[in-house]
Specification:
alpha+beta; Alpha-Beta Plaits; 5 strands
């Protein structure tokens, strides 16, 4: 039995709307016999560089070499460089956007030996750099390389060491005191007991203590390329050291 024309028209409109929604995805669009949407964003990476003003020309030359290296990579589309922004301490912030055809091609270039060699050559030109990837509209960090790619954005190493010790020392002391009084892990073999201890310490340190340390000392834990006033440096250092001395005195008294 034939359907009424109004019902047929309604079904046709619904199919068209569904087709339009599904066609956003290349896979579903292919199933529907539609071509991939050419307006979909290509996989891109935004790279930010902090460059001393005196190194501007050297950075431009280095950047041209970097783009030429990317151009030789499979799937490269184009590179965009934007006018620099002035930041503190006579530094400029440069932004570059590189576009590739496919996410795996972008990742292949980011992990290439040619790019690694260029980064080593550029260490003397820019103070720090970081990048963010946009893969078909989905933003995320390259977590498998983030440890290397966030170079120079944190505070100086000596500040990081003091902050870590400030947070880690009381955890170890309190944890050891509690475990000793409760007699936990005494029947365990040393390796297993050490593993359990480290797991507890790391969880407490990472999830509870360190976020608070960073928040309390935020005025002092500035990125290395942003110099703080001398008064701020002295106050932060003295507060950190005095806190450690006070904890040593406290734990010696209760031991």
């Amino acid at each position: 039995m034939a359907l009424p024309e109004s019902v047929t028209a309604t079904i046709t409109r619904l199919r068209e709307r569904l087709s339009q929604r599904l066609a956003v995805s290349d896979g579903f669009g292919a199933l529907l016999g539609r071509e991939a949407n050419p307006d979909l964003p290509s996989p891109s990476v935004i790279i930010e560089y902090i460059v001393p003003s005196t190194q501007s020309w050297a950075f431009r030359s280095w950047h041209r070499r970097m783009v030429k290296t990317a151009q030789r990579s499979e799937g490269f589309l184009r590179a965009d460089r934007y006018r620099p922004l002035a930041v503190q301490e006579s530094c400029l912030k440069w932004h570059t956007v590189l576009h590739f055809e496919q996410p795996h091609q972008l990742k292949q270039w980011l992990q290439s030996s040619d790019r690694e060699a260029l980064l080593k050559a550029g260490r003397d030109i820019f103070k720090s750099y970081k990048f963010t990837s946009f893969e078909t509209g989905m933003q995320g960090w390259f977590s498998d390389a983030s440890g290397e790619e966030l170079t120079g954005l944190g505070p100086p190493a000596w500040k990081e060491i003091l902050a870590v010790v400030l947070g880690l020392y009381p955890i170890i002391m309190v944890q050891g005191f509690i475990l000793e009084r409760l007699g936990l892990f005494e029947s365990w073999d040393p390796a297993s007991a050490m593993l359990a201890n480290n797991l507890i310490t790391t969880c407490v340190f990472t999830l509870v203590v360190m976020p608070r340390i960073v928040r309390w000392l935020n005025f002092w834990l500035r990125p290395a390329h942003r110099r703080s006033p001398l008064q701020t440096e002295v106050v932060g250092t003295v507060v950190t050291v005095l806190a450690m001395v006070a904890m040593v005195y406290f734990f010696n008294e209760i031991a």
